[in-house]
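Input sequence (75 aa), recorded before submission:
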Amino acid sequence: MARQSISLTEKNDLWLRNHIENVGDYANKSELVNDLIRRARRAEAINSKLLKSEKSGFTNQSSDEILTEFKLNVK
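Predicted structure, C-alpha cell format:
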C-alpha cells in the first residue's frame, strides 16, 4: 500500500479525530481517509453515469420531474 503524507486544516484534523474516537467505525485516520476516497470515487462514477444518461436524450423530463415521478412510484 502506498504511503502518503498529507496536510490537513485544523478543522479537518479535528473532524477526523472526533469521528474515529466517537463513532468508532475506524481504527485510525488512514482507514477513514481511504473510505472517504472510496465513497468520493463511487459518487464520481455514479454522477458520471447520470450525466451520460441525461445527455443521451432518452427522456424529455427534467430532473425535478423524474424525481417527482420516482417519489410517486415509491409510495
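Checked by second reader. The mean pLDDT is 90.
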